[in-house]
Amino acid sequence: QSNPTRAGLAAPSDLLAQLADPAALRYEPLPFGLPAARDAVARDFARRGYPLEPERILLHASTSEAYAWLFKLLGDAGDRVLVPVPSYPLFDYLAGLEQMETVPYPCVWEGGEWCVDFEALEARWDDRTRGVLVVSPNNPTGTCFGQAELDAFLSKIPAVVVVVIDEAYAEYTTLADAVDAIAVVKRRPRTVMLRTFSKAYGLAAYRVGYGVGDPELIGYLERA
Fold this sequence. Notes:
224 residues; alpha/beta; eight-stranded mixed beta sheet; 8 strands
């Protein structure tokens, strides 16, 4: 079942009323999203203890659209991006639409959970690898990276490769050792974090999300 509201996960009762705000009738085609909306995302992170500059935030219609932008940015036809397996099957199609290739890096079942096979991960690199995806919590396995595991993962990745941390389901975990993806984005250049309101609020039909990136990537998109 892909509709949370049919599975007992209720949406905020006043959400639809907010969509009736007359301000929504104004057409303001700002490619990175309205400044007020980017500020609101930054304030929400600050409220949760993760200070973040609005300039790092880019709004998008969905993580699928964000992946399309990223794959356009990352490389040329025939370049490669590493994706976890098992994981969300749409990655192959999204990369293919941008003429990029996906190379799977395996996750293995150990100790009651799926874990990255680091030896296999290192064997997947070549001179056409442009990016690597980290999906935590993972769909469909539910696996979450702890901070130690993510640090070990990042240590295996060349500095020139873009890391995309997909946290679309971040609000669905109670992991004590939850990853501070904001800190990772701030300390590691060429890193992007993706999230989506449709998952956070259990509204599969409302496609709004945001990406958080380092200034170099955001600046490149602005110039493009």
